[in-house]
Amino acid sequence: MKKVVSVVEDILSANDRLAELNRSRLDRSGVFAINVMASPGAGKTSLIVRTVEALKTEFRIGAVNGDLATTIDADRIANTGIVTVQVNTGGACHLDAPMLQSALAHLPLDELDLLIVENVGNLVCPAGFKLGVHRNILIASVPEGDDKPYKYPVMYQDVDALVLNKIDVLAAFDFNIDYFRRGVEILNPNLAFFPLSCKTGEGLAAWFEWLRNEVRGYVSGRTGADR
Amino acid sequence: MKKVVSVVEDILSANDRLAELNRSRLDRSGVFAINVMASPGAGKTSLIVRTVEALKTEFRIGAVNGDLATTIDADRIANTGIVTVQVNTGGACHLDAPMLQSALAHLPLDELDLLIVENVGNLVCPAGFKLGVHRNILIASVPEGDDKPYKYPVMYQDVDALVLNKIDVLAAFDFNIDYFRRGVEILNPNLAFFPLSCKTGEGLAAWFEWLRNEVRGYVSGRTGADR
Fold first, then answer.
1. Which residue, A53, A59, A96, B88, has most beta carbons within 10 Å?
2. Please, which residues have CB within 8 angstroms of residue A85's CB and are 6 or more apart in sequence?
3. Which ipTM score applies to this complex?
4. Rounded CA gap, A164 and A159, in Å?
């Protein structure tokens, strides 16, 4: 009985151990990494493209794009001119640490400051698989509805920042932003929150500023540690 | 080596075998069942509520509602006055045949004509688990984007009917309906397609008519078989 339990624990933590290796690999090259998660169509690729365009003169940025099929998103990101590695998950509903490990092997990590990982569009499964990144980002979008924190709590409770995209269509949907915020605050009171529109650009500056400070804080923390 | 392969096959087909039992159970009571799948926020509950309101005088309808957490959706459906069973998946990203089997045990099947099953909001995992229903329905929505058939092909290729919800906001989104349709037709040329808006009611009549005919065809087919 005891043996079975210990075997199960080993299997569960295999992904986490590989995630720690990914983190060490990133830190060895001084690359700050974020994992971007969302429902299908919430705007992961749009936010990444906007972010790369805004920050690529300040930081050397790379991307990993996880998808079930096609290179539609990876192509959009690569069109910004940054190095992009596509991970075809072969039907799997999320990225995991072994997939990121494989992707990292194809990236020139010593020449990057920031790595943006786009997860598979899914509001359930990605929450269960650590990748080894430094920050986890969730994108919600207005058309999905204001009840999503209540209905998909696991995704909301462990992220560091929450983007609410498509605020340009707030008027067209019955979206109560206070009800949404209350649901988020119960689960995750300290997360950073960025209502914005990738389409109109409204609110993007605050997101860029947060990410800029996170990357700079990481770099200066490392410099301090090296002294 | 051969033994391992056969064990894996057994595990994979266990769900399908239970799905067949579910189908037999439904057929024994003459209940036509549909499985409604979609991304989070595409409008599963809204379409179900609209459908129940339109058809509840013609058919005796029951519902099964799968969710990770909360009874928000189940309560909305139950408010229409029909018998509703909530399945809390305990974090699982999809319904499976054993879950539906448990739910069926709580329903007065002999008193129903139509059972509507609402799956967990997810555009990946539900496709892999047959439930034993008679028709599978997928709801896409305009704000998700017109590239979803290309990026989530497995969900699109096995469904019997596709609803495109939220067409009232078509003008606010860069949604190319021809591109969307082409992606669908490559994967699944014979499916029934219903562009509509649960909010304004536009297009709902065609969906009601299709479902009405499916239920009636099932009932008359059974009557024929009994003769």
1. A96
2. A62, A63, A64, A65, A74, A103, A106, A107
3. 0.86
4. 13
Nearest CA in chain B to A126: B93
The predicted-structure confidence for A63-120, as pLDDT tens digits, reads as follows 999 999 889 999 999 999 999 999 999 889 999 999 999 999 999 999 999 999 999 9
Strand arrangement of the beta sheet that strand A135-141 belongs to: A83-88, A61-67, A114-118, A32-38, A135-141, A161-165, A192-195
Check CB contact under 8 Å for A41 and B145.
yes
- Right CATH for A2-226 from 3.30.230.10, 3.90.660.10, 1.10.1740.10, 3.40.50.300: 3.40.50.300
Closest by CA position to A170, among listed A196, A142, A140: A142
How far is it, in rounded angstroms, from Cα B11 to Cα B14? Answer: 5
Inter-chain touch A125–B121, beta carbons under 8 Å? no
**Cα distances (angstroms) measured from residue B71 to each of A56, A116, B89:** 45, 35, 12
**Residue B54 CB contacts under 8 Å (≥ 6 apart), including other chains:** B204, B208
Is the CB of residue A122 less than 8 Å away from at least one CB of chain B?
Answer: yes
Give the domain ranges of chain A. 2-226
pTM: 0.90
Asked if residue B134 lies in contact with residue B19, where contact means CB atoms within 8 angstroms, the answer is no
- The per-residue DSSP string of A84-114 comes to EEEEE-TT-SS--HHHHHHHHTTS-GGG-SE
Please give the Cα distance from B152 to B162 (Å, whole number): 14
- CB within 8 Å: A41 and B72: no
Q: Are B162 and B133 in contact (CB under 8 A)?
A: no
Average pLDDT, consecutive stretches of 10 residues, N- to C-terminus, chain B (227 residues):
47 84 97 98 97 98 94 94 94 94 97 97 93 98 97 94 97 94 95 97 98 96 61
